[in-house]
Structure formats: C-alpha cells, structure tokens
Amino acid sequence: MFSSVWNFVKRHKKKFIFTGAVVGGVYFLGKYAQKRLSEFQEKEAAEYLAQARRQFHFESNQRTCNMTVLSMLPPLKEAIVNQLNSESLTALLKAKPANKLEIWEDLKIISFTRTIVAVYSTCLLVVLLRVQLNIIGGYLYLDNSVGKNTATPLAPPDVQQQYLSSIQHLLGDGLTALMTAVKKAVQSSLGDVPLKQSLSLLELEQQLSWIRAEVEAGSMSRYMLADDENALADQACGLTEDDTVTIRLLNETRDMLDSPDFSTVLNVSLNRGFSGLLDNLAEFFRPPPGDSAPGFAPDSLSAVSLPVAKIIPIVNGQINYICSETPSHFVQDLLTNDQVKEFAANVYETFSTPQDLQK
C-alpha cells in the first residue's frame, strides 16, 4: 500500500511541487494584500481626519471673519461721520441762515458722498478681512499640524498682531483717499442737479452708476493696503526678527488684492452692496396705496419721482443701516455671498498647504 502511494507521489511530483508553490504564493500574496489594504485604510482614515480637521478649522475661521467685520463697523461708521459731518449742516439749516441754498448744496454732496463711501468701505472691509484672516488661518493650521517639520512658527503672535493692524489703513488714510475720490465723482454727477428737480429710482440708479464708473476707474486696492514699500516697512515697525515675516505677509496680501480673482469677487460684492442700497431707497419711492400714475406699474422704477431736496435726508440716513452695529440684511448679504466664500476657501487652501506640496 505504502509503495503504491509512494509511486503515485513520484509520478505526480512536479504537480505537487507546482501546487504547493501556488498555494504558498497565494498565501503570502494574500498576507501582503491584507497588509497593503490595512496600510491603505489607515492612510485613508488619517487623510479623512486631517481633512475634517482642516474643514472644521476653516469654518471656525470664517465665523471669526464675520464677527471681526461686525465688530469693526462701528469704528468705520464713526470715521466716516467724523469726516463727512452732515449733522452740523443740518443744525445750521435749522437756524435759517441767509446762505440756506449754499448749505443745502453742501448737504447734497456730503449726504451722497458719505452713503456711497459707506457702501464702498463696508464691501472693502468684508473682502480684505476675508483675505487677511484666511492667510493667517492657513498658516496657523500649518503651525498646529501634526508632524510639522519645523518648530519655527509661520505666524507668531506678534506678527499676527502687527499684520492685522494694517487694516487701520482702510480706516485712516485709505478711507480719506476714498472719500476724496467719491466726493469728486458725486460733485461731477450731482453738482449741477437742482434741489427742486425730481428723480425717479431709475434715474437715481443711473447717477450711482456714473459715480461708480468714475471711482472704480483706478485700482481699489490702494484704499485697502498702503501702497509703497516704505509704508509696508512702517507697518512692521516695533518688531525685530519678525519684521521680514510681517512684510512677507503684507506682500502676499498685496498679491492677492492684485489678482484677477480678487477683482471679480470685489466687483460682485460692490454690485451686491449698491443693489442693497437701491433696495433700501426703493421703499421711499413706492406710490401711496391706491394711487398709481397712469401707464406705470406700481413697482416700476420710474413710477414715482421725488425732488432732490427730499431724497437728500433719505440718502443721508442710509449709513445707519449700512454700518449698523447689529447684523443687518445689507451686511449679511455681503458676508454670505457664495463667491466671497469660495474665494476665501481658495485663499485658505493656498496658505494651509505645506510649501513642499505646492511645488
């Protein structure tokens, strides 16, 4: 019996060797595949957790952006009102002076200028802080990332503070320059329009379009960030070894402000801002209930016209809504703009990606 079994094995020896090799190979291949699958799953899980952490950090950063914008509206409003003080002119008119007409003309220019400046500066504030806080947010994410190669922080606290203080340009010299440009455009567009002349909402919209065309003919970035290298260095004063880091952040910000994508987002924000202003003004151009002019639809932009003298106080009061301390529909519309949010995500993505992965 044993001899017959042995003879069978000898006859089929090659088959047994091949089968054994195949079975062994399949076993070890299975083990290798299991190991690789386990490594892949661990890598996938790590990447998913990293992405979830990054997304959470980004969303938290956007909430910080929104809160920062809202906190800066009161000082922005104060800065505008201090330089474009229509209240003093209103007080003079109550005293019935001899030069009443001249004061009304000044009030016309001041009222339109400060409301238009309020729209511009609020839009600029929203988009500029989106850029700055997402640059800082990206670097902070890298500084706190697990497995970071260097112990040197990309955005030390002193640098963050000095870099973010550059927003003061928009509230100071930048705002003054913006007021000058807007006032010149308002004077050019509305200076010769008599106080007794009536304007419809459509005609008022056309006036705003002419003013915008003149103001936006140049670069808007000069109102947001100081222009020359000396000013950038001045903004970094008081620091020592962090000077170069601060100036680098400012230059990276300037690159963003000069990019085509930023121009697109800023233009979208400005269109929304002025559209919101017109929506507010439209409430005052509605015909009285049951009274509509023949040939005009009740909601037509041309249905109602108001004398410029009556439009002035309406326009003058808009700053209280635009720069409201409590979240208004005007500001919320700017903060929730999808294109602004997408641009913010792209900025954050750029600066939260390790440099070696960007090359």
The chain-level mean pLDDT equals: 82
Main sheet specs? 2 strands, antiparallel
Main structural class: mainly alpha
Question: Percent helix among the residues?
Answer: over 70%
Strand content: under 5%
Cα-to-Cα separation, first versus last residue? 73 Å
Shape by Cα distribution = elongated
How many alpha or pi helices? 16
Radius of gyration, CA atoms, in whole angstroms: 32 Å
Would you write up a description of this structure?
This protein is 73% helix and 2% strand. With 359 residues, it is mainly α. The chain is elongated and about 130 Å long.
Task: For this entry, give a set of tags.
two-stranded antiparallel ribbon, 359 residues, 16 helices, mainly alpha, single chain
Draw up the topology in text.
Blueprint: H1 2-11, H2 13-83, H3 86-94, H4 100-143, H5 157-164, H6 168-171, H7 173-190, E1 198-200, H8 201-215, H9 229-235, H10 243-257, H11 260-282, E2 305-307, H12 308-316, H13 319-322, H14 329-335, H15 338-351, H16 355-358
Antiparallel strand pairs: 1-2
Helix pairs in contact: 2-4, 3-4, 4-7, 4-10, 4-11, 4-12, 4-15, 5-10, 7-8, 11-14
